[in-house]
Design goal:
Layout: H1 20-31, H2 52-59, H3 75-88
Length: about 100
């Protein structure tokens, strides 16, 4: 059986992310959106906004909800403590 070769992984070059975090925070506040993305990823520790696709998303007015470096979603991080509290609360008493 011949082994399949995977295509070579392309290297992504980080971009200058100066001001993108502030731009995302201001846009979220203005539109009433939750601001999910921190400046550094909780999982891989890299600058979330330095990925070229994330920078383009912010500049286009999009909502950043995860790290494109390690593919970690920030949506589940933000609400995980709420979900755990609902699971522990007795039936009919979850807030």
């Amino acid at each position: 059986m011949a082994s399949e070769q995977r295509p070579a992984k392309t290297e992504v070059t980080p971009v200058d992310s100066t001001g993108l975090y502030a731009k995302q925070a201001a846009m979220c506040k203005e539109k009433g959106w939750p601001h999910f993305a921190p400046s550094r990823c909780y999982c891989c520790g890299r600058d979330v906004y330095s990925h070229p696709e994330t920078a383009a998303e912010v500049n286009a007015g999009g909502l950043v909800t995860g790290c494109r470096w390690c593919y970690r979603s920030f949506c589940d991080q933000r609400f995980s403590s709420y979900s755990r509290a609902r699971q522990r609360a007795p039936a009919g008493q979850a807030g």
